[in-house]
Design a protein that fits this description.
alpha/beta; elongated; 8 helices; 2 domains; Rossmann fold; about 45% helix; Arc Repressor Mutant, subunit A; single chain; four-stranded antiparallel β-sheet
């Protein structure tokens, strides 16, 4: 899962980034309104952690911008302004949750997992397609009820496709989603091809009834039974 932290307090931003990376998330940051809007326009995120008071603008304005431009991502508002009016306004503008400062990192992680489950899995804790079940909490893949060992990036790639069954995914979009926006500096996608080759082999050997097929000249597509 890829996160964008929009927070201008550097110490808190660094603390959140460290804690969330330890949980296995891909994390990017923006410290002001303009940078946040720019990143939201260029990259896609699964969840946005949004402060209200930002240099150059308001977090509420970012919520309105996302709504008007059709940017889809879970949003958790994180703010020292713990007033009922702010909570109501944030939720009415499309936020999925509201967390008041100060907070424990364990609660933040729980909130992220909660909004992800609600939006993508109807409350389930995993991703299930065919005989494939991926548990996002325990980080375990099971095929026909039997555990299959995956490397971290293989797990992240498979989860990305299970969240988008039947969708054709550009290899550049996949790379950016799993590895982060620094991937722009890479000259080729050999690392994607290598991870994908190993993942597809493991799925086939375990008898998965899903398949990640190559789409010539574009990327990949998860084929479901």
């Amino acid at each position: 899962m890829k996160l964008l932290i929009i927070e201008d307090e550097l110490s808190l931003q660094e603390l959140m980034t460290k804690a969330l990376k330890q949980e296995g998330y891909v994390v990017e940051n923006a410290m002001d309104f303009n940078t946040a809007v720019e990143k939201l326009g260029v990259y896609s995120y699964d969840c946005v952690l949004l402060d209200i008071n930002l240099p150059g603008g308001s977090g509420f304005d970012i919520l309105e911008h996302m709504k008007k431009t059709g940017i889809r991502a879970n949003v958790i508002v994180i703010s020292a302004r713990d007033s009922l009016d702010d909570k109501v306004k944030g939720l009415e503008l499309g936020a999925d949750d509201y967390l008041a400062k100060p907070f424990h990192m364990a609660e933040l992680v729980a909130r992220i997992r909660s909004v992800a489950r609600r939006s993508r899995n109807d409350g389930d804790i995993g991703y299930k397609v065919g005989n494939v079940v991926l548990d996002d909490v325990s980080k375990v893949l099971k095929i026909d009820g039997k555990p299959v060992s995956l490397l971290k990036k293989e797990f992240d790639i498979l989860k990305y496709f299970l969240m988008r069954p039947g969708h054709t995914v550009d290899k550049a979009v996949l790379a950016e989603a799993v590895w982060g926006d620094h991937i722009d500096q890479s000259d080729d996608f050999q690392f994607v091809y290598a991870q994908m080759k190993n993942l597809r082999r493991k799925l086939a050997e375990a008898g998965a009834d899903i398949e990640i097929k190559s789409v010539y000249g574009f990327g990949y597509k998860l084929i479901t039974p």
